[in-house]
């Protein structure tokens, strides 16, 4: 009698990949070690100081129910535009100021708490998963291209592309007929938020839990950065990107294809490779970098999928939203870059006054991120209050 037990193809492929990866790390141990060191240094010097304040504050604010408060205030704006609840404004603000992959994690947290529906979560992924200004302005604009203006062009294209993508995804999913339900008063929302936050637990307990949860998440991100650093190093070792460019993309510029393939896996390497192509003009550089950053790379995808794995959010929708975000950002860059190019200094590679962000140390980046978080949050609260005042008068 034949054995009816079947082994899945995914399991076999995963087994082969892990075995091959382990063997390559053994045979090329020195390269793997150097790549690991690079990944750890990148995480410690750039990711940790830039994201830690945002992770702690966002987790603490969710525990305090601030997303419900601002959601109640900005519901009249977010619902008509993007067909998502007002909480999306909170997620978008955090994502824009902090960068990948915090927006995706907050969306997953809100979905797990049933604060938003499945369709609303998938719509929010289209415009609440963005890169941060510190990366685009400092690392890419000044550090790689030597142009703060190019960094601003990329950032504006990226964020406007996210909003355009959100407007497109408002048509995603079945439209639910809105029932005439009496809106919860702001006093009731504040009461529920305070009741849920206290819950016989002290503020310092919540604060300590936020710190521990943030470090746990950042360690997961560190692991992915190291893993993809090793993978890309091994790809370079075997000339993988070069062979792909020569065999599959012969009709396109060789150097641009190699840079784009690197960006497909990891955005930092892709943007850096583009900055080394001397004959690319301002507009083309802006379009390509905006597309790569909005795609976010397989390294960021792996981090994001870790957060949404425990929810019912469709992974395919996340991937599709990143593709459309990349297209929307490229279109925005096509119009934004020519408008800003007239302000470009004559020497594109001459480092400007903004290089302080790129060359700053760990403490400076940590303080910069913390100040940015506080300033944006204060502006965000003021905007919400003004919106509430005008709404109450109308």
List the helices and strands and how they pair.
Blueprint: H1 9-27, H2 29-64, H3 66-82, H4 87-98, H5 102-112, H6 118-125, H7 133-144, H8 148-169, H9 186-198, H10 203-237, H11 240-248, H12 254-265, H13 267-275, H14 282-295, H15 297-308, H16 315-340, H17 355-359, H18 362-393
Helix pairs in contact: 1-2, 2-10, 2-18, 3-4, 3-9, 4-5, 4-18, 5-6, 7-8, 8-14, 8-16, 10-15, 11-12, 12-13, 13-14, 14-16
Fold and architecture overview:
With 394 residues, this protein is mainly α. It is 77% helix and 0% strand. It has 18 helices and no strands. The protein has helices at 9-27, 29-64, 66-82, 87-98, 102-112, 118-125, 133-144, 148-169, 186-198, 203-237, 240-248, 254-265, 267-275, 282-295, 297-308, 315-340, 355-359, 362-393. Helix 8 crosses helix 16 (315-340), helix 10 (203-237) packs antiparallel against helix 15 and helix 12 (254-265) packs antiparallel against helix 13. The chain starts with 8 loop residues before the first helix and ends with a helix. The model is unreliable at 178-182 and 346-359 (pLDDT under 50).
